[in-house]
Amino acid sequence: MQGGKVVAYASRQLRPHELNYPTHDLELAAVVFALNIWRHYLYGEKSVIYTDHKSLKYLLTQKELNLRQRRWIELLKDYDCSIEYHPRKANMVADALSRRVISDLRAMFAYHSLYDDGSLLAELQVKPSWVRQIKEKQWADELLKSKFQLRSGDGTTEFSVNSDRVLCFRGKICMPKDPELRHKILQEPHSSPYAMHLGGSKMYRDLREQFWWPGLKREVTEFVSKCLMCQQVKAEHQLPSGLLQPVKIPQWKWERITMDFVSGLPLTPTKKDSVWVIMDRLMKSANFIPVRVDYSLQRLAKLYVVEIVRLHRVPALIISDRDPRFTSRFWRALHQALDTRLDFSTAFHPQTDGQSERVIQILEDMLRGCVIDFKASWEEFLPLAEFSYNNSFQASIQMVPYEALYGRRCRTPTCWMELGECQILGPELVTETGEKVKLIRARLKEASGRHKSYTDLKRKDIEFPVGDRVFLKVSPWKKVLRFGRKGKLSPRFIGPYRVVKRVGLVAYQLELPSELIQIHDALSFGPISRSVSGGNRSKIRFIF
C-alpha cells in the first residue's frame, strides 16, 4: 500500500515441501515472497511490513536461527524495511479474494444484509431460465392454449396451472411443440456435466417426473441415439453385424494355402527367432519352417521354393495377412511369375486367416511344453512338432492330415505294426485317391456349413450403401496402439468416415483422413449394432 491505497495484490499456493514448514517459517516465507516479487518497488526505499504474526517483529534480535531463517535474513538486509505487528482483528480484509464487487452482486439481484458482528451477507434466489421460455411458448401453442381455457379448479380436468402460471398435466409441466426448446430440455439431463451422457431409460425416468408431452419416450430414445459422444465412448451390448462368409473349399491338395509368421520366440543357437507356418486348406497339413525375423525376401522366397514348391506343387492361391513381407513388390512379382493369386485379409480382421491363427496357437503350446519339459531349444523340437500335428486327428476332415495326404496312416511308436498288407497300384490308386479327396471336400463343406449356421445365429445381416458414414472401432488388444489411440479413457470409436465403395461381401473402402494414412482403407465390419440418422440424413454405423 502507498498513501493508504492498494498498489498490488499477490498470492500463490504452497509448494509440497512448504506444507511441512512450521508457522513461524511460513509467515517469514510470505515476507520473503513479497520482497522478491516487488523488488522493483521496495529496493532503495524505506518500507514497513505489517504482519499478524507477532514473533516476526523480533526476528533480527532472535538468538537461535535455523539455516533457512539465516538465509532469508541475508535477503532482508538488502532492503530498508521494518516489521510491525498488526493484530488480526484490526485486519478485516486480508487479501483481494475476500473483496466481492458489489455491482456484480447487484447484477444477480442479490439482497444484502448486515449482521451484528459487522459481517455482510448476500442473499440471492436462482430460478431456471427455461420456465419463462416455456410459459411464452405455451401461449403460442394452439393445443396448449386451448387447455388453459378447459382447466378448472374443481379437479374435473387433469390440467392445472402452478404458482409460476405454467400449464401442467397431472403436476408435470406441459412442453409446447417447439423443437429448439425441447432440444434444450433434452440436452440438459443428458449432455451437461451433471448428467454425463446417461442412457435413454435413465434419462426418460428423470424427465417424466417434471415434464410431459406426447411421444416423450420416443424423442428421448431418438435424442440419445443421435448423440455423437455416446456413439464414440459407449460399449456395444448387441449382436455383431455381418454374416459369416466361409472361404471357398479347394479342389485338390495344396491348391490353396495359408501362411503366417510366429515371431518373438527366444533366440536359438542358430540365430532363429521365428517360425513360418504354411498350411494346406484341404488336407489340413502344415509345414513349420524356422526363420529369422530379419530374413530378406530373397531368402524367404528360396525357402518357399525348397519347402513347398519342391515337395508339393505351385499353389494357385495364397491367403495371408497384410504383413509387409507379403505385400512387397518382390513377393507380388514372384507369385505373378508363378501364376499364384495373393489374397490378403482386410485390416484388423485376422479371422480371414483363422486357420493359420489357430495352428499358431497349437504350435506355441507344443513348443512351450517342450521347452519346459525337455529343457532344450525350441528349434530342436520343431520337426517333431510338425510331425505330431500332421499325425493328429482333425475334426473338420474326420481323419489325420498324413492319411489324407498319403492315403494311409503313419507308423508311430504307439502304432508300430504294419498298417495293412494290401498294395494298390495303377488305376486303383488314382481312383481311391480321387474318392478320398471327394470325401474330404464333402466333410469340409459339412463342417463349414455347420460352423456358419451356429455363428450366424449370433449375428445380424447388414449392408452399408455408398455415402453412409461409419465409425471405426478402437479396441486395444493387449495394450497395442491402434489408430493412434491408446489408454483406458480413449474413445471406443473414431469417425465418422464416409463409405466410398464396397470391395467384398463384408468389406468396404472408407475415406480416411490423413492422420490414418498408415491404416489400409479397406476394412470389414464386425460388431455393428447401432445405426442412426443424423441431421443430414446420412447413417452413422459402426465398422470394425
- The CATH homologous superfamily of the largest domain corresponds to Ribonuclease H-like superfamily/Ribonuclease H
Q: What is the total domain count?
A: 4
Architecture of the largest domain, CATH level 2?
2-Layer Sandwich
CATH fold topology of the largest domain: Nucleotidyltransferase, domain 5
Mean pLDDT: 77
Q: What's the β-strand tally?
A: 19
Over the alpha carbons, how many angstroms does the gyration radius reach? 40 Å
Beta strand %: 15-25%
Poorly predicted runs? 527-544
Termini separation: 66 Å
Q: Which of globular, elongated, flat, extended, rod-shaped describes the shape?
A: flat
Can you characterise this structure?
The protein is α/β, with parallel strands linked by helices. It is built from 16 helices and 19 strands. It has helices spanning 23-37, 39-42, 67-76, 102-107, 130-140, 142-150, 179-191, 200-207, 216-225, 228-233, 297-309, 329-337, 354-374, 378-390, 401-406, 427-456, and strands at residues 46-51, 80-85, 111-114, 120-123, 159-161, 167-169, 172-174, 211-212, 256-262, 274-280, 286-291, 317-320, 341-344, 469-473, 493-502, 507-510, 522-524, 532-533, 539-543. The strands form five sheets. Strands 17-16-15-14-19-18 form a six-stranded mixed β-sheet. Strands 11-10-9-12-13 form a five-stranded mixed β-sheet, sandwiched between helices. Strand 15 (493-502) and strand 16 (507-510) form a beta hairpin. Helix 1 (23-37) packs parallel to helix 3 (67-76) and helix 8 (200-207) packs antiparallel against helix 9 (216-225). The longest helix is centred in the last third of the chain and has 30 residues, at 427-456. It starts with 22 loop residues before the first helix and ends with a strand.
